[in-house]
Amino acid sequence: MNLRQQLTKALFYTSASSPDSLPEDIGNEVAFAGRSNAGKSSAINKLCSQKSLARTSKTPGRTQLINFFTLSETNKLVDLPGYGYAKASQSKQQKWIELLEYYFAHRQSLRGTVILMDIRHPFQDADLAMIDWCSHHQCELHILLNKVDKLSRNQSFKQLKLAEKQLSNFPKELVSAQLFSAANGTGMDELIKKLEMWFDK
């Protein structure tokens, strides 16, 4: 079964709220991360051609757990807690940070991380912190500049060029970026090619 077929058959597997509740560290995983309301859950649903696989909400900070979705016996998608939500309590933010730090430092099955950013407001401090985490742990990273449907084609490509310039300080073999829209599917083929590369490692 190819990856596109696997994606349409994605199923919720389990949630983890702490390092000791993470599932067995086997197979291949690709994680999705992003600031609260960057469109992460919507992107996962669009990718898997399912309306409610990942929970979406207009309330920032809804995803407070690490959620795992099975694609096959060996492949999983991982929905990480949304970060950068200032109204969450300090203790809750710290718990998320500690869980994410543990995940990136210890997860052997992690093949790459997709970071969703609103193309109109990319590279906030929390985004840069996530990029630094991935770089520090030598985790490959692919950035989706989401919501390109909100900008003109010319504006979108300008933002992509600015993003590539912003990422020029990071190793090219670890970091890449593309235009994307969870609303209309722009950039979906490019994203799937990246995921195929990671899952085939």
Task: Please describe what this structure looks like.
With 201 residues, this protein is an alpha/beta fold. It has helices spanning 3-8, 40-47, 90-106, 125-136, 153-166, 188-199, and strands at 11-16, 28-34, 66-70, 75-79, 110-118, 141-146, 175-179. It has a 7-stranded mixed β-sheet, sandwiched between helices. The longest helix is centred in the middle third of the chain and has 17 residues, at 90-106. The two termini are 16 Å apart. The model has no long low-confidence stretch (mean pLDDT 90).
What is the topological layout?
Elements: H1 3-8, E1 11-16, E2 28-34, H2 40-47, E3 66-70, E4 75-79, H3 90-106, E5 110-118, H4 125-136, E6 141-146, H5 153-166, E7 175-179, H6 188-199
Parallel strand pairs: 2-4, 2-5, 5-6, 6-7
Antiparallel strand pairs: 1-3, 3-4
Describe, in short, the structure shown.
The protein is α/β, with parallel strands linked by helices and 201 residues long.
Q: State the secondary-structure class.
A: alpha/beta
Beta-strand residue percentage: 15-25%
Give the termini distance in whole angstroms.
16 Å
How many beta-strand runs? 7
Main sheet: strand order: 1-3-4-2-5-6-7
Order of helices and strands: HEEHEEHEHEHEH
Shape label = globular
**What does the average pLDDT come to?**
90
User: Helix proportion of residues, in percent?
Assistant: 25-40%
Quickly count the helices: 6
